[in-house]
Specification:
By secondary structure, this protein is mostly helical. The protein has one domain. It contains 4 helices and no strands. The longest helix has 25 residues, at about 70-90. The model has no long low-confidence stretch (mean pLDDT about 90).
Length: about 90
Amino acid sequence: MSIILFVALCVLQMCDVYSTKRLLDASVAHEANPVMRFMIEKVGTVAGLILPKLVVLALAFAFLMQLPVILAALCAVYVVVVANNFRLVRKLM
């Protein structure tokens, strides 16, 4: 069960990067997370979006594989984030 949740979290992270980059490139949104905003300012959009997510995924793999409830909660949070991002992306089209 945990491996499925981890794979789902990876896919959601990729969707978040893609949709956030589309919104930032179109200048219709700004990064609300101050940590992510700081990273984007320091290393650029793509690296600033990807590097923190790699850290989150590494930590999730290292510490949360034994806690599927927390992995499921993270997935639920990112489902909401990604759904909102794609709702905004859809408005662009």
